[in-house]
Amino acid sequence: MSFKPDIPETPLYKSKPIVSKHYNKVSEVSVGNTFNNMEALDLAVRMKALEEGYQFLSNKTDPNRCVLKGKDIQQDILSQYKINISYQQSWRGKEYGLQQIRGSSYESFEMLPYYCHNLERKNQGTVTRIKIDEKGVFEMLFIAFGASIRTFMHCLRSLLIIDIAHLKAQYKGTNLVAVGMDGNNQILSVAFGICKGEIGPCWLWWMSVLKECIGDSPNLLFISDRHAAIALAVRNEFPLAFHDDVQLDAYHKLCQADPQRWSKAHCLLVRYNYMTSNSVKSVNACTVLNRKLPVIVLAETYRAMVQDWFFKRRELVDISL
């Protein structure tokens, strides 16, 4: 395996200078102008507003999201090159450009074994698994970073909250996530994965790998929604743990459900007032854009997010000491 993708360190935050070196007084804000970066554009627009005495409203921007639409591309090509192109041509051009920047979904799945190999080499205790079918086609992915495993085993409350999110990239699929909670009610992503859908075999395989990482214990509590596949996987792979499914339907359905699955009074373990899987939804909100991108981009999002969390907390400890 000659391909070894770099795993960058988390960069230190640097505050923006009060006076920007990117601003050029002779530059003008007009259609077709280009700027070296977002800061230069932002400052140029603000200075123009000050000079001409008007206010402006900026729409929300995100450097990781392309908001250019097909019609915008058509207009830009016509304005700059005096060429009329169809909407389909502009759409295909946009897709090709994004593929050149982010890589294709197909190539991303091909790179997964190399990526996982290097994750384990660079992060002690990290566990990665890729499941393929008899034809060698990708089926499922599991990744748990070593730092997250150690932190969960030694520092966090003995509960895991699990849930899913749907992928929007070319091959679709489901994003499986397990998070833990610390004593300050802060969230830590313990493990994540990708599979074809929220079905029994997928949860069973994924939970079996999770068990390799954290083991089974009568003190371990699982919190999830009432999906039958999750309940089956927990019963099979974590027979010693307590699984408190949450029923959010109307009262008459609650009365029909097993009280152990939704009542704090019937919960045999301490659940720290966690009644829903909303903590996973908070993590899912951080990946909502990248779930539309190739799979390695999504995996890198989790890696960067976890690394950034640990870096900031270590920095806070050093300051307090």
What does this structure look like?
By secondary structure, the chain is of the alpha/beta class. It has helices at residues 38-52, 70-81, 87-102, 105-122, 146-154, 200-214, 228-237, 251-256, 278-286, 295-320, and strands at 127-132, 138-144, 159-166, 174-181, 187-195, 221-224, 242-245. The protein has 10 helices and 7 strands. The longest helix is centred in the last third of the chain and has 26 residues, at 295-320. The radius of gyration is 24 Å and the shape is globular.
What is the chain-wise order of helices and strands? HHHHEEHEEEHEHEHHH
Q: What would the principal axes of the Cα set say about the shape?
A: globular
Main sheet properties: 7 strands, mixed
**What value does the average pLDDT take?**
80
What is the secondary structure topology, with strand pairs?
Layout: H1 38-52, H2 70-81, H3 87-102, H4 105-122, E1 127-132, E2 138-144, H5 146-154, E3 159-166, E4 174-181, E5 187-195, H6 200-214, E6 221-224, H7 228-237, E7 242-245, H8 251-256, H9 278-286, H10 295-320
Parallel strand pairs: 3-6, 6-7
Antiparallel strand pairs: 1-2, 2-5, 3-4, 4-5
Helix pairs in contact: 2-3, 6-7
